[in-house]
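Long-time lurker, first post.

We've been arguing in lab meeting about whether calcium ion would sit comfortably in this protein at all. Half the group thinks yes, half thinks no, and nobody has a model to point at. So I'm putting the question to the forum: if I give you the sequence and the SMILES, can you give me back a predicted structure of the complex? Inputs are below. Any interpretation is welcome too.
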Amino acid sequence: MLKKALTGIFALTLASYANASTTTFTTQNWDFSSNNVSVTGGSSNSQINMSAGGVNVKVTAWSSTGEGACNSGPECGNTFRRDTDPFIERAQLTNYSSGLGAINEDESDNSPNHAIDSRGQNRDEKDFDMVLFSFDEAVELTAINIGWTGGYDSDASILGYQGGTDLGSTPFSGNTKWSDLLNQGWDFRQDSFNIGVGSEAVSSGFESKYWLVGVYNPVFGGSVNHEGNDVFKLRSISTQLTHRTEVPEPATFALLLAGVAAVFRRKTKA
Ligand SMILES: [Ca+2]
Ligand SMILES: [Ca+2]
Ligand SMILES: [Ca+2]
Ligand SMILES: [Ca+2]
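Top reply:
Settle the argument with this. Predicted structure of the protein with calcium ion, as C-alpha cells:
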C-alpha cells in the first residue's frame, strides 16, 4: 500500500518536473570605444576580443574590395560600379573614441574612409564595409549604437547567421559576394536608415552566434535609392542571452511533501 502510494506520488512529481521550466534573460553591452578596448593584431589580422556577462566575442572587419570576374548576382552589371570589386576581403578593424571603423584593402587611413563606409576610394566605386561579430554563444542582437557619422548619410544593413556550421577563422571563402551570403546560411535581418549618432533597435526574435553589421547594401533586397555615401563608427552593440532551465516548481515539492505526510499518517494509524 505504502509502496503503491509512493510510486504514484513520484510519478506525479516527475510529470510535473518535466513540464516545469523557466526562461531568464541577461543583457550584455559591448562598448567598442578606444577608451574601453583595444584592437589587437596587425592590419591583416586585426581584431577585438571581449567578454561580457559570461559571453565572449571576436570582432573582425570585412569589405567588398576583391577584384575578379563578377559573373552573376546583383553586384554585377556596372550600375553603381559595384562590379569593380565584388568579392569579400578582410579589412583592417580600427577603433576610435567614437567607435569601430574599417580600413579596407583599397582605402587609406583618411576621413571618412577610416570609418565603416560605402564610399569607394576611387570616384563612383563602392566598397561596402561590414563588421562581423563572432560570439561563443547564440545571442539576440537588440541594438546598435553609432558614435560618429561625420555628417554623412548613415544607413545600415544587419544580417544574422542561421547556418549550422562553425564559421571559424575563414568565415567567407574566396570569391564570395555579399549577396551570396543569403544562399550560405545568412539571414537578412533589417535595414535602418538615417540612424545618425545614437541608438537603433534591432528587431527581436532571432538568435545567432554570428552577426554582420555594416553600411546599407541594396543587394540584400532593399532599394538602390538609399545606396551610397553611408558612413559611421559603431560605438557599441547590445545583446541578450536567453537561459532556459528545467526547474521543479515549488507547488510540486509542496504536493510531494503533502503526499508523503498523508501516506505516513495512514501507515501510523494502521
Ligand atoms: Ca579592390
Ligand atoms: Ca572604410
Ligand atoms: Ca570607403
Ligand atoms: Ca545611403
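For your lab meeting: The pocket of calcium ion (ligand 1) is lined by residues 65, 67, 85, 105-106 (CB under 6 Å). The first strand starts at residue 21 and ends at 31. Whichever side wins, do check it experimentally.
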